[in-house]
Amino acid sequence: MDFADPADNLDALIRIYAANDGATFVWYAKGRIYAVRPGEIAHPLFDGAAVQSIRFKRQLDGTYLQEAAFAQLHYDATGAVVATAVNPVTGRAFSVPVMQSGAAMSQMVFSVYGVRRRSDSGAPEHVSPNPHVYEWKIDGDDVVLTYEAMSRYQAPWMPIMATENSVRFFSTSLAELNDRARPSVKATRFEYSETPFMP
Fold first, then answer.
1. Cβ atoms within 10 Å, residue 133
2. 46 CB contacts (<8 Å, ≥6 apart)?
3. 8 Å CB contact between 46 and 87
4. pTM for the complete prediction?
5. CA distances (Å), 28 to each of 51, 60, 69, 188, in order?
6. What is the pLDDT of residues 119-168, one digit of tens each?
7. What 3-state DSSP class applies to 16?
């Protein structure tokens, strides 16, 4: 793999996310949700478990259309599903429904110019005019990719659209990536996300 080549860079990204042959993959993740205020200790709220079904369809122009479905539920230390929680700062209770993606969130376009949301509205889409190359770290056979992502959504308890900033880490094998006959490679993913809103 030549990670300085935008085409190779894109191919590697698709293969660690899922596969470049259109096969469907499932990611499962679990973690903890905190309430955070600048200069204060983070307040743990509850745990979360998420599952995502994802596949990439290669388009005639060389881009990949991501089709994904996502769901996340929240639970407490006993394993019971959390339906309500309390804001540790205001003391107000708020509902915590199961989060799931809608059709508008499920389709993204991956190209050598980066990742953008698919738009069928006719509105202009702003994409970098220069090929986008992610920086991969190589240490022997270990390959690590770290990149930032941004998404916008409105959960049921949110009065306004929220902008979520994420840092994603992928770890995989260089030997597997160099084997171009493999449409997918095994990868470990870690993600840290921050949404500047709290009910």
1. 15
2. 32, 33, 74, 75, 76, 82, 85, 96
3. no
4. 0.80
5. 5, 30, 12, 11
6. 553 434 445 566 778 889 999 999 999 877 766 666 555 666 666 778 88
7. helix
